[in-house]
């Protein structure tokens, strides 16, 4: 089956720093989503981005579908950005069944 | 507009007991999903319903059954709970079954003793 690998697994930042999270996937996809799971366990949709670039405030994401990777950029990080960031994909030609990566655990310290 | 709601929020069961997790969405979505999340891992798909009246297995269906009661509601049943089913269960929905954003509920934390 499709493999979804996220890096780095853990990241510690000082408030105000920038970071880049990466998601590699092993097959063609027609859905790619980035989620933030906050410390209370809630999954928050960040981006639906099977290809191209999107921005939302301090966050932006780029997916290069032909090279099978996606990047999530966090600028001027805040303590509220802490939590786990998941990338999830669904295979092209199939139902919208998301396969999740193992996540990147981010801790932002003041 | 509540989005995706799940009940209960937390449940403790003894091995062998049964229970049903409830999920409802008010976004008029056609597709609904059940996932489980084990500690330190990403979510894995248990079952999904591409549209009202249809259900199909996901990655980890063993030990579970589902019912798509109507367009709004999708329930997950554990007939005989096992400690290996201790997990956090998330329900999600999307407009359709391809190329669509999935929206997640708040989760149900289940502990099986």
Structural description of this entry:
Chain A has 110 residues and is an all-beta fold. Helices cover 0% and strands 59% of the residues of chain A. Chain A has no helices and 11 strands. In chain A, strands 2, 4, 5, 9, 10 and 11 form a 6-stranded mixed β-sheet that branches. The mean pLDDT of chain A is 94. Chain B has 113 residues and is an all-beta fold. In chain B, the strands form 2 sheets. In chain B, strands 2, 4, 5, 6, 9, 10 and 11 form a 7-stranded mixed β-sheet that branches. A 4-stranded antiparallel β-sheet of chain B has the order 1-3-8-7, with no helix packed on it. In chain B, a hairpin with an 8-residue loop joins strand 9 and strand 10. The termini of chain B are far apart. The chains are: A mainly beta (110), B mainly beta (113). Chains A and B meet through strand 4, strand 5, strand 9 and strand 10 of A and strand 4, strand 5, strand 9 and strand 10 of B.
Radius of gyration of chain A, rounded?
13 Å
Strand content of chain A: over 45%
**Rounded to an integer, what's the Rg of chain B over CA atoms?**
13 Å
Average pLDDT across residues of chain B?
A: 94
Largest sheet of chain B: 7 strands, mixed
Structural class of chain B: mainly beta
Number of helical runs of chain A? 0
How many DSSP E strands of chain A? Answer: 11
N/C terminus separation of chain A: 41 Å
Largest sheet of chain A: 6 strands, mixed
The helicity of chain B comes to under 10%
Mean pLDDT of chain A: 94
Low-confidence stretches of chain A: none
Based on CA inertia axes, which overall geometry of chain A fits? globular
Give the fraction of residues assigned to helices of chain A.
Answer: under 10%
Order of helices and strands of chain B: EEEEEEEEEEE
Distance between the termini of chain B: 36 Å
Question: Helix tally of chain B?
Answer: 0
Number of strands of chain B: 11
* Biggest interface pair, counts: A-B, 24 and 29 residues
């Amino acid at each position: 089956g499709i493999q979804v690998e996220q890096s780095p697994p853990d990241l510690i930042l000082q408030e105000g720093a920038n970071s880049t999270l990466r998601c590699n996937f092993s097959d063609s996809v027609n859905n790619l989503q980035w989620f933030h799971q906050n410390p209370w366990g809630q999954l928050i949709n960040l981006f639906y981005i099977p290809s191209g670039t999107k921005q939302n405030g301090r966050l932006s994401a780029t997916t290069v579908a032909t090279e099978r990777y996606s990047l999530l950029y966090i600028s001027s990080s805040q303590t509220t950005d802490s939590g786990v960031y998941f990338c999830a994909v669904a295979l092209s030609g199939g139902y919208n069944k998301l396969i999740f990566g193992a996540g990147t655990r981010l801790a932002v310290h003041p | 507009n509540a989005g995706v709601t799940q009940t209960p929020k937390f449940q403790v069961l003894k091995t062998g007991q049964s229970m049903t997790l409830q999920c409802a969405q008010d976004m008029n979505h056609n597709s609904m999903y059940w996932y489980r999340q084990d500690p330190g891992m990403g979510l894995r798909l248990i079952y999904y319903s591409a549209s009202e009246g249809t259900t199909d297995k996901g990655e980890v269906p063993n030990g579970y059954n589902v019912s798509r009661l109507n367009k709004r509601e999708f329930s997950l049943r554990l007939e005989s709970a096992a400690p290996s089913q201790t997990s956090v269960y998330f329900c999600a929905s999307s407009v359709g079954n391809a190329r669509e954003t999935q929206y997640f509920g708040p989760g149900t934390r289940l502990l099986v003793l």
